[in-house]
């Protein structure tokens, strides 16, 4: 509803109370309604799920319509990201938030900093989703509050043209609330545990849940060693659990991202159940490493024997009880994982790779699309990659294959700053700049995310400030490096009282107390120094 429609409805409601609500100003109540568009997390989940589905269809029509996100570990960081996007680009279209399990573990656990191994409290995941949306909704209220204040000034000045313009801005306001792709890790337990946690995440506002095919009690970061996958039947059960959670809560178009870690995982916790040759369990077991045996005498105490491709094979089992996959089978296992997930309820794929290489990703996606033509990826533009070195080496290898002289470059040392201004260094930067566009066009990537960029930006900016402030620069380090830049670059946080809600609170006090309101934003508020 528009502001005037809300005003009309609330005026009628107030009048129907026969004087009981005479202290209530219908315009103020209408303003509060407009400034609080979403009442529950489920309202947000349903709204953002529709956005994601529209964006997925737009990508299928034109791969230039890929989407992006940055991982945010606090509501304020997510809020400032979306405020920045609106300021610089005028719209939040195709820009999301990513909730990283890595950053929850490292920054939000009551145990303190933890590695990305599902040891943190699982309740901290839905708590962060709720926090992110609380801050995004507050950004709506903050932005609209400024518009309503401007509207009041225009009315006081009798400026009809300005009144019309501001009213249109209010009625057409674009919310800061965008989809969150939320990391549920490996589900934090069995399928029932996955379902219960998924419900909490959806109730907090998540329209999209990312689930990985690792063993939940052995889960590792996708860029660490020691990853252990589960048979497909176990993973499908958890996909089903997430879908049931979406359906129970009425988010019928909720999105499930099925992540496979098989490219870098060499182990499995158990042998898959198989009923007949060639079924899904048999295909999974066909990748297990082992030694062919010819008689019972070849079997020792504790050995496990399976039938593999018509032969008896003693499976290689580690001291940990885990089973080992054959070397070089990672990509084939990825393909089987992805096709199986899409055919059993997943909407999007996530293939965890060891480097950002368009050709590598495309080779896998093309194989998947032979079975599922509209398969598309969520891709981790990971800070775990050395992007500079990777792309310089890719350029080096391409030039070498073309027969170009690369003798002035040392491949293993290409990270060296002396290569920054060289032809190779500049071309590598261009490849990096175009990576998202190129891979979305050539490798089926619908969504690009950086999992933990704000972890790194917080550390870098804090280091820069600490180096100067505690050194010779003193207060100038803050003034020149932070505040002056905030003022000149139009960063809203320079008026931190306003950003935290001081003006919103003042307006509410006036609604509640009228002329008796004791407000904080008067002439002696030092925030006025910033204009």
TrEMBL record:
<dbReference type="InterPro" id="IPR040442">
    <property type="entry name" value="Pyrv_kinase-like_dom_sf"/>
</dbReference>
<keyword id="KW-0479">Metal-binding</keyword>
<feature type="binding site">
    <location>
        <position position="183"/>
    </location>
    <ligand>
        <name>Mg(2+)</name>
    </ligand>
</feature>
<keyword id="KW-0460">Magnesium</keyword>
<protein>
    <recommendedName>
        <fullName>Isocitrate lyase</fullName>
    </recommendedName>
</protein>
<keyword id="KW-0456">Lyase</keyword>
<feature type="binding site">
    <location>
        <begin position="100"/>
        <end position="102"/>
    </location>
    <ligand>
        <name>substrate</name>
    </ligand>
</feature>
<feature type="binding site">
    <location>
        <begin position="222"/>
        <end position="223"/>
    </location>
    <ligand>
        <name>substrate</name>
    </ligand>
</feature>
<dbReference type="GO" id="GO:0004451">
    <property type="term" value="F:isocitrate lyase activity"/>
</dbReference>
<dbReference type="InterPro" id="IPR039556">
    <property type="entry name" value="ICL/PEPM"/>
</dbReference>
<dbReference type="GO" id="GO:0046872">
    <property type="term" value="F:metal ion binding"/>
</dbReference>
<feature type="binding site">
    <location>
        <position position="451"/>
    </location>
    <ligand>
        <name>substrate</name>
    </ligand>
</feature>
<feature type="binding site">
    <location>
        <position position="259"/>
    </location>
    <ligand>
        <name>substrate</name>
    </ligand>
</feature>
<feature type="binding site">
    <location>
        <begin position="380"/>
        <end position="384"/>
    </location>
    <ligand>
        <name>substrate</name>
    </ligand>
</feature>
<feature type="active site" description="Proton acceptor">
    <location>
        <position position="221"/>
    </location>
</feature>
<dbReference type="InterPro" id="IPR006254">
    <property type="entry name" value="Isocitrate_lyase"/>
</dbReference>
<dbReference type="GO" id="GO:0019752">
    <property type="term" value="P:carboxylic acid metabolic process"/>
</dbReference>
<dbReference type="Pfam" id="PF00463">
    <property type="entry name" value="ICL"/>
</dbReference>
<dbReference type="InterPro" id="IPR015813">
    <property type="entry name" value="Pyrv/PenolPyrv_kinase-like_dom"/>
</dbReference>
